[in-house]
């Protein structure tokens, strides 16, 4: 089962949605799927995590690597729709200082501009 759904493309922005929590059982698949997106030269990415209850630290690390690759290529990522638990985790580990976090598509798109 895939961990990422490609939802749509709007201009040069790719919208992806995590289909589940990122845990030890699917971390390798998640990493392969992320690098597949990068190999397609997609560097402006909105990541909807509304279907994820939890993301292990390795998954957060992969998102940070994704953000770095995107920035190195003139793009960025925005995390969208975290639940309350993930919102707290992102804040505690200071990921919200590294990657923009938004709660709706309109604001996520504005962060891309």
UniProtKB/TrEMBL annotation:
GO terms assigned for molecular function: anti-sigma factor antagonist activity
Source organism superkingdom: Bacteria
Pfam families: STAS
Coiled-coil region: none
TM spans (from-to): none
Limits of the STAS domain: 3-112
UniProt record similarity statement: Belongs to the anti-sigma-factor antagonist family.
Protein name, UniProt field: Anti-sigma factor antagonist
